[in-house]
Structure formats: structure tokens, C-alpha cells
């Protein structure tokens, strides 16, 4: 039997994989929408409130070798936030120009694991069509075959060219807090 260079190549590849540690595949894991939420908290001189979205579209690239998430991407519809007040939610859609900028997104560029499940996630937050660098501190907890990432970070409306809503001549505070509680099946 005569071997050509073509077969020699495939034999070399087979030997390479037989004696080389091949890293396990990285895989994409989607967040469990039934268990995940993103909440904004805002303050006005007369009251404060939360708006909750249960329509969290979030995916991570998970490395089975290191048991760490390596990338994360999140997209949330502005219209999906519910503050238990239809008038306020409608006004939020106007202020945030929800038809022109329907989504709030975050895409990571770097994730560092720390002690006790701490994660530092750097990336870009795009809100109201304005992209800004953001660093999030998250806590990871694993239980029952699920990984839960929780955390919060401040967002200033002025950083994203959002006109602060007002009530009775008083404006809402510029600073808001975005909180997340996102669950992934491992």
C-alpha cells in the first residue's frame, strides 16, 4: 500500500491529538429567564422606586477547564421594566426614548475571578444609544447545578444623555443603580 503526503498529514494530526492535552470546549450558556432579573433603582426628592425586568437576555461563554465565565453579553428591553406604576413606566419609555433606543446592553471585554466567588467584569454599557466603559463587581454562587451571578453598579443618566424626569418642579436624582441576579444552568 502506498501512502501519500495527504495520509501522512492526517496521521500526524491523530498522533498530535493522542498525546496532547486538548482543552475542553468552551460553551455558550443562556441565562434562565424564569429565574433572572435586572432591577433599576431611582430616587426623586419625594419618593424612590424600583423597576424590574424579568425579560433578561444574557449569555456567557463558559470555560469548562477553568470553570469560569470568560465573556458575558446582556440585552434588556427598556419596555420590559415594570415599576408597578403604568404612568411611571410610560413616562420612562418617553424619557429613555424606548422606541429609538429599545435595549440596554452590556458586553464584557475582561472577566477576572477573585476570592470567594468575586468577579470583576469590565466591558461596555450601552444605554440610550450611548456606549460607556463600565466595571461591574459580581458575586458568583454555585448550587444545585446552577451558577448565580449577583451584583449592582451605579449609572448616571447624564453620562448617557438622558434628560432627568421631573415631578412637581423637582428632578429625579442623576444617579441610578442597576442590580442584577442572573442564573445559568451549568
Tell me what you see in this structure.
- The chain is mainly beta.
- Helices cover 13% and strands 53% of the residues.
- The chain is built from two helices and twelve strands, in the order αβββββαβββββββ.
- The longest helix is centred in the first third of the chain and has 15 residues.
- The model has no long low-confidence stretch (mean pLDDT 90).
Summarize the SSE layout with pairings:
Blueprint: H1 5-19, E1 26-30, E2 37-44, E3 47-53, E4 56-63, E5 68-77, H2 86-95, E6 103-113, E7 118-127, E8 130-143, E9 146-156, E10 166-167, E11 170-171, E12 175-185
Structural class designation: mainly beta
Q: Work out the helix count.
A: 2
Q: Write down the secondary-structure element order.
A: HEEEEEHEEEEEEE
| Spatial separation of the terminal alpha carbons | 49 Å
Quaternary organization: single chain
Mean pLDDT: 90
Percent strand equals over 45%
> Which regions contain 5 or more consecutive residues with pLDDT less than 50?
none
Strand order, biggest sheet? 1-4-5-6-7-8-9-12-2-3
**What fraction, in percent, of the residue positions are helical?**
10-25%
How many strand elements? 12
Largest sheet: 10 strands, antiparallel
From the alpha-carbon coordinates, what is the Rg to the nearest angstrom? 22 Å
Shape: elongated
